[in-house]
Amino acid sequence: MGTHMKTTVEISDALLGEAKKLAAREGTTVKALIEQGLRQVVAERKRARPFRLRKAAFKGRGLSAEAGKLGWERLRELAYEGRGG
Question: What is the spatial distance between Cα 30 and Cα 76, in angstroms, rounded to a whole number?
Fold first, then answer.
């Protein structure tokens, strides 16, 4: 498994109590349960893909010079003009 490092982790008394009972029932150690839990979380996070916003650019060069001078509120008004928004 490689090298091991000693560390201190603060766990609530209630959770530690439950972990100790579970470890005793399963004939294992709290350390083993913690390692198992960490491995599971790390594996799940590795599988999860980070959110990526798709590129939704339009052909062209962005806002016109006139529109670039407007504030966000006015741009939104123009975008929804005649659409009931």
Answer: 56
Total-model pTM: 0.54
**For the packed helices 30-47 and 13-26, what is the interaxial angle rounded to 10 degrees?**
100
Q: pLDDT tens for residues 3-62?
A: 888 999 999 999 999 999 999 999 999 999 999 999 999 998 888 888 888 887 777 777
Structure tokens at 21: 């009972």
Q: Where are the alpha helices (DSSP H) in 1-85?
A: 13-26, 30-47, 65-68, 72-80
Q: List, for residues 35-47, the tens digit of each pLDDT value.
A: 999 999 999 888 8
Contacts of 67 (CB under 8 A, 6+ apart): 75, 78
For the stretch 16-22, contacts whose Cβ atoms lie closer than 8 Å and that sit 24 or more positions apart, written own/partner, are none
Tokens describing residue 59? 């052909």
